[in-house]
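Q: Joint fold for the lines below.
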Amino acid sequence: MRIVIVGPGALGCLFASLLFPVQQKASDGVWLLDHNQQRSELLNRQGIVYEIDGVQRQTMIPVLTLPSPLLTTGRPVDVILFCVKSTVLADCLQSCRHLLSPQTLVVFLQNGIGHLDMQERMQLDGSPVFASSSEGATLLAPGCVCHAGRGRSIFGFLDAQIKQPGLQLQLEKLLEALQMAGLEVALSTEIRTYLWAKLFINAGINPLTALYNRTNGQLLTSCAARGRMKNIIREAEAVARAGGIPIRIDPVQAALSVCKRTATNISSMLQDRRQQRLSEIDAINGVIVREGKRLGIATPANEEIVWQIKEMEGKYEQNVARITVGREAHEQHQGHDEN
Ligand code: PAF
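A: Joint structure:
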């Protein structure tokens, strides 16, 4: 299989380092794509470093910047894994458009559910596969990933592709390769349910850690934060139920137990705040607000947190336009409440 991994972040480097050694046939290949030319040169010189239990292994995986003759000529790509944040996904899809054929599996590993129809909306070739991963990977430096906690990655098609045997076989082949690489993976016909289960946790934990500048565990010591977390998740749960998503475990309890298990974690949204980057708030709580509107479910706790995070992000200089849109939406909502 010819596999392209987009984004040399923690998960991208993890998948690339583990997949590369097991893809050794002449017809195989694993490439990492990076939009940043300078960084890709560095990664090609130093290799990708994978660390587990204090032991490091270096792998010379080819890191490419598009357009690259290696990928634009010859056979199409069989699998492309998008290991990038939801904030840059549309741009990445656009720049990889020419790598996709109708047979390409396009694997999405983003948080949230805002990307479920993105490929269709952008009219791109390829068959979308969605994945939810709980692998604990941390980027220590460019191209250096620490596999801090072993998790599980679940993959699945949404409805339309399930009955196409060729695609199913291709996905099984990818999962076999990931298994041979040492990862715990599973195929599910209920991927939407898994994505929502992760969304509840991200929606309840991430924005509050960012807003209050606290670790996951520190959220539990504040009554106010715990109360808000519960309200945010209960609203998300009501939206999911209205949309016909089965809920098998109590999402509030699940989020509280993630906070305990990952007490010292700096959530991804808190990392974004500390580095003054745009967060995934739109793909996480924003999408709950949007789905709530579509299904007639009120989501005031989510609207409030979206607004507060956007207000915070608006203070980073480059985001003035974004904050204006957020404020208008909030003011409209306040108007509704007062009427
Ligand atoms: O996004 C994250 O940071 C994590 O998925 C989690 C566990 C929700 C918070 O650290």
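Q: Anything notable?
A: The pocket of pantoate is lined by residues 201-202, 205-206, 216, 258, 262, 265, 267-268 (CB under 6 Å). The chain has a mean pLDDT of 89.
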